[in-house]
Amino acid sequence: MRPQLADPAQLSELGQPLEIIGGKDCKKVTRTPKHGETFNIGSIAVKALHTPCHTQDSICFFMQDGDDKVVFTGDTLFHGGELAGQPLPLIWAVVDM
User: By C-alpha distance, which of 72, 64, 63 is closest to 23?
Assistant: First the structure.
């Protein structure tokens, strides 16, 4: 089952305008953060990391809430350091994290 993206107009019916944050080539995205740009979702600090690997528009989001940390990837990241994708862009993206 393919996930469906909500229309920004429908989301605004919830009472406040909501941004859809993601890569510039993604449909329905209303804002693409710059590499290294930070923003908050409530108490969660979010940092956008452009990681052009399998796709040139890939973005990872590093999120931290207190001592809890997580990275949401739009690409493949294997446990133990194995990588999949175009070798040099992958290396640069991981080194930059």
Answer: 72
